[in-house]
Design brief:
This protein is mainly alpha-helical. The chain contains 17 helices and no strands. Helices cover 59% and strands 0% of the residues.
Length: 403
């Protein structure tokens, strides 16, 4: 399938790329339209994260570059500034590859140094940078730059001094004004004020790790992400969201425990639906789906224990069709009416895709050993694990060096 669009601004283009990228994200395939709930839980538990984020270092590289831009180092023409930001991000990618050969998580590593990516680090990390308070304004990058340019264009307040010094001091005054504006727009660790490019690495420095931890804990205080950091939880021990909950549930604050329990219950219902979806798609011939369905069918009360009304209320989601699908599918399974459950799945896919695109209406197009869609939800726990582990490693490296 080929897609085409007309964009009228960089922001329009970014929105389209976000949608296209979502379709390509691992685990984001959603044949039955539950992404609204999945993402709502993910935003509660791990705000500021995305499944396409790679290393925590970009939470600092992007603000470093943008702070330079708002200080006036890239000039005063918006178009030129945006191109320069793009160039600087690419140069940082090349330097990361040179300084950290073989390291995973460098954006653009498959196309650098000759090419560059359509979705840049600033696109991928910008929401997190704002969420964690590293940027103090809830604006798009172009609007933030426009605001900084407008502020710098304002005449300075009159001051006491020798009028003859005005021409000499003009550039210095502009530079001072740029630094003042940038300081209001961005909060960054001390590494910025040295030559942060000189030893650029995918690893966080000690001050970067401490800074990022403090920002997350301060600005997402009710989140699971904050809880894991504040309690120094070894996230690498857990291979799933449910395993994390099972181990921590007794120690969690009441509201966080309740929300995680609800997310796990929803996860089980979604898994039952995804297994049954693949069973129906293959007419029962997919061995993995058949085996998993045997497990699901033997544990129907447990797999369908989620309270749909509580779920929708907790997440503040008003979506009649989604509520109806979940309620009817749960009811059909609990009543042992598998034909009704299958019909509900087929109707749901048609409802969100149209009949011509619904895979369950084109079963002959797929081999019986193909698994379509995801399995268990992890609510971006995998992305959060990398972020948390990078922070721990930055802090630990400092402790080891000073022992």
């Amino acid at each position: 399938m080929q897609l085409g669009w007309i964009d009228f601004s960089q922001e329009d283009r970014k929105k389209v790329l976000d949608v296209i990228n979502l379709l390509q994200e691992p685990g984001a395939v959603d044949e039955i339209g539950i992404g609204l709930i999945r993402d709502a839980f993910a935003n509660l538990f791990f705000p500021g994260t995305s499944t396409v984020q790679t290393i925590a270092k970009y939470f600092l590289i992007v603000p470093y570059i943008l702070k330079e831009a708002t200080e006036g180092r890239y000039g005063n023409d918006l178009g030129h500034i945006l191109r320069r930001i793009d160039q600087e991000e690419k140069v940082c990618g090349i330097r990361l590859m040179q300084n950290c050969p073989g390291e995973e998580g460098i954006i653009g590593r498959r196309v650098l140094p000759n090419g560059w990516v359509a979705r840049k680090p600033s696109d991928i990390y910008w929401n997190g940078i704002r969420t964690y308070g590293i940027c103090t304004q809830d604006l798009t990058i172009p609007d933030l730059l426009k605001a900084s340019l407008a502020l710098k264009a304002q005449p300075p307040a009159a001051g006491i001094g020798n009028p003859g010094d005005a021409a000499t001091d003009e550039k210095g005054d502009d530079a001072d004004a740029g630094r003042e504006i940038a300081a209001q727009l961005f909060s960054v660790p001390d590494d910025y004020y040295s030559d942060w490019r000189s030893a650029l690495s995918v690893r966080l420095t000690k001050s970067e790790a401490v800074f990022l931890r403090e920002k997350i804990e301060t600005n997402t205080s009710s989140s699971l992400l904050c809880y894991l950091l504040k309690n120094n939880v070894d996230v690498e021990r857990y291979d799933s969201f449910e395993a994390l909950y099972a181990d921590l549930c007794d120690a969690l604050p009441n509201e966080l425990r309740r929300t995680m329990e609800l997310a796990c219950a929803f996860n089980r219902l979604v898994y039952a639906a995804r297994v049954r979806y693949n069973y129906v798609l293959s007419s029962g011939q997919n061995e993995e789906a058949a085996s998993e369905w045997t497990y699901v069918e033997g544990n129907i009360p447990y797999m369908t224990a989620v309270d749909i009304d509580d779920l929708m209320k907790t997440l503040d989601i008003e979506n009649f069709r989604l509520r109806r699908f979940l309620t009817n599918f749960k009811t059909a399974l609990r009543g042992g009416d598998l034909q009704a459950a299958d019909d509900i799945l087929i109707h749901r896919e048609i409802e969100i895709k149209t009949r011509s695109r619904a895979k369950l209406c084109r079963r002959d197009d797929f081999s019986n050993d193909t698994w379509i869609g995801g399995r268990w939800l992890d609510y971006r726990f995998s992305s959060a694990k990398r972020l948390i582990s990078d922070i721990y490693q930055g802090e630990e490296r400092f402790r080891v060096q000073n022992q």
